[in-house]
TrEMBL record:
The chain crosses the membrane at residues 52-72. This is PASTA domain-containing protein. Residues 131-150 are annotated as: Disordered. It comes from Nonomuraea guangzhouensis. Keywords: Membrane, Transmembrane, Transmembrane helix.
Length: 281
C-alpha cells in the first residue's frame, strides 16, 4: 500500500470520532480519493506528424522525407543522337556541359568517346581543335565534324555536330571549339582576318601602325607587343609610321603585331580571307 495513503489513513482515524466503528476499508478508500485529487496530472501527448512518404519539389530537388533520401533529377541531355546509316550524327545541345556528362551519354550508347569543348575565337567555334582518332588525324579518320554554314557568328553560337561511326571500336577523344563566356579567355585562336574574327574585312595590310591602333581600339582591342625583324625581336612599341606585316590574336582583348618600316606584301591567306569583303582587302 502506498506510504502516503497509509499516513493519511492514520490521520483520518485520529481525527474521526467514529473511527472505532468505521470500517478499515472505508478509511482506505477516503485516503485514496484525497491523494488522487492532489496527484500531478501528466501532460497531454503532443502528436508529431510523420508522413509515410512525402515528395516535395523545391526548385529541382525532390525530397523523400520518410526515407531520408534526396533524389536529384537527371540533368537535361547535353547531346542529341540521330542515326544516319552506319553513323551517329551527334549534336551538342549544351556546349557548356561538363565533360563527365558528355562521357555518360556516349557510354549509354556504347561509344568510347571523350568529348571536351574549349573557349575559342569565333572562327574556330564548332571546329575540331584537338583530339585523337578524329578527322584532324590522318590517314584513318573516325570522327568528323559537320560544319555549320552559319558559323562563325559573334552573337549566336554555332551548331556543333559530329559524325561518329556507330560501331566505333577504339577510344577516341575530341576537343571542339565553343563560344567563350563573358570574361573567359580563348584557349585557341583563329586567324584574325578570318570570317567572324575581329579584323575580318579590315584591310590592315594597307594601314600604318598608327591607323591600325585606331581600328583595334574601336573594337575594344589593345596591343600587347610588337615583333620586329627576322629574329622577331619583342618591342613594347614601334613608330606609328611603320607598317604591319601580320597581326595575331593573344586572347580576347590583346593582339601581337609584326611590323617594320617598309610595307609588306599581303600573304595568300590574307587575300583569301579578304576575298569576300567589299573592298577586297
Amino acid at each position: 500500500m502506498n506510504h502516503d495513503v497509509k499516513q493519511l489513513r492514520s490521520m483520518l482515524r485520529a481525527h474521526d470520532p467514529a473511527s472505532d466503528v468505521r470500517a478499515e476499508s472505508d478509511l482506505t478508500a477516503q485516503a485514496q480519493r484525497i491523494t488522487a485529487a492532489f496527484r500531478p496530472q501528466p501532460l497531454p501527448r503532443r502528436r508529431i506528424w510523420k508522413p509515410a512518404v512525402s515528395a516535395v519539389a523545391l526548385g529541382t530537388v525532390i525530397t523523400v522525407a520518410a526515407l531520408g533520401v534526396i533524389a536529384w533529377p537527371r540533368p537535361a541531355e547535353a547531346l542529341d543522337f540521330t542515326r544516319s546509316g552506319k553513323d551517329y550524327i551527334v549534336t551538342v545541345k549544351d556546349v557548356y556541359a561538363a565533360p563527365e556528362q558528355y562521357a555518360e551519354e556516349f557510354r549509354a550508347r556504347g561509344l568510347p568517346v571523350t568529348l571536351e569543348l574549349e573557349p575559342v575565337s569565333p572562327s574556330l567555334v564548332g571546329k575540331v581543335v584537338g583530339g585523337q582518332g578524329t578527322s584532324v588525324e590522318r590517314p584513318t579518320p573516325q570522327i568528323e565534324p559537320i560544319p555549320d554554314p552559319n558559323c562563325p557568328a559573334f552573337e549566336d553560337p554555332c551548331t556543333v555536330k559530329l559524325k561518329i561511326p556507330a560501331d566505333l571500336a577504339g577510344p577516341a577523344s575530341v576537343t571542339l571549339g565553343r563560344p567563350a563566356r563573358e570574361g573567359e579567355n580563348y584557349t585557341t585562336t583563329g586567324e584574325i582576318s578570318a570570317p567572324g574574327e575581329v579584323l575580318h574585312c579590315v584591310p590592315y595590310m594597307g594601314m600604318t601602325v598608327g591607323r591600325l591602333r585606331g581600328e583595334l581600339a574601336k573594337r575594344g582591342m589593345g596591343i600587347d607587343s610588337f615583333r620586329v625583324g627576322p629574329k622577331r625581336e619583342v618591342r613594347p612599341d614601334v613608330p606609328d609610321a611603320w607598317w604591319p606585316s601580320d597581326v595575331g590574336l593573344l586572347g580576347r582583348t590583346k593582339v601581337v603585331i609584326w611590323a617594320g618600316p617598309q610595307q609588306a606584301e599581303a600573304s595568300p591567306w590574307y587575300r583569301d580571307a579578304q576575298a569576300g569583303c567589299p573592298d577586297g582587302g
